[in-house]
Each structure stands twice: as C-alpha cells, then as structure tokens.
Design brief:
flat, mainly alpha
C-alpha cells in the first residue's frame, strides 16, 4: 500500500510538472516557488487542523477560493511578493489560532 501511494504521488507530481511546463511553455525550476504556502493556507483556512484531526474536501475547496481571492486582490492592489507572503502567513496564523481556540473551548465544555 505504501509503495502504491508513493508511486501515485510521484505520477501526480510528474503530471503537475508537465501541466506547469505546458502553461509556461518553458521549464523553470523556480516557477512554483511559494505555492506550498498557498496550499497549506488553503487547507488550514478550509478547516483542517494542523494539530491532527479531520478535514473535508468541501472545506478545502472553500479555502482555495479564499486564498485565490486574497492573492488576486493583493495583485490588483499592487502588493509586492513579500507582502503577499506575509499576508498569507498571517491568514494561516489566524486560522491556526482560531482552531486552537475552538479546540480548547470544546474540551473545556466537555470537562
């Protein structure tokens, strides 16, 4: 099972690389710098806890929409790339802080 998962992950990463090359019409190893931050932000904003637990595909899709709107708005406002990363990081911190607060509140009400 583990071999199958790693094989599938490798094949999907290769397909994503081919799609990126097709989109850019060139192979640039630095083309996707910072996308991992956007992916983490989308998942965390979508409701998946970094402390473990469960998430949903629907929540992640909503998180992707929020991050896409945030980044598009920042680009329209003329924000520089470091500013975009700082604001995305702040959104992650806010989502994690909200998750921690929610977990503490739910465990305090159970006790």
């Amino acid at each position: 099972m583990q071999f199958a998962v790693f094989t599938l992950a490798g094949l999907l990463a290769a397909a994503a690389g081919l799609c990126q090359v097709g989109y850019l019409q060139s192979a640039d190893p630095n083309a996707a710098i910072g996308m991992e931050l956007s992916a983490i932000a989308a998942v965390v904003i979508g409701g998946t806890s970094l402390l473990g637990g469960r998430g949903s595909v629907t929540g992640t899709l909503l998180g992707v929409l929020v991050i896409a709107v945030l980044q598009t708005g920042l680009a329209q406002a003329g924000a520089t790339e470091p500013t975009k990363r700082i604001i995305t990081g702040a959104a992650i911190l806010l989502a994690v802080a909200t998750d921690v607060w929610r977990r503490r509140r739910s465990t305090a009400s159970v006790s």
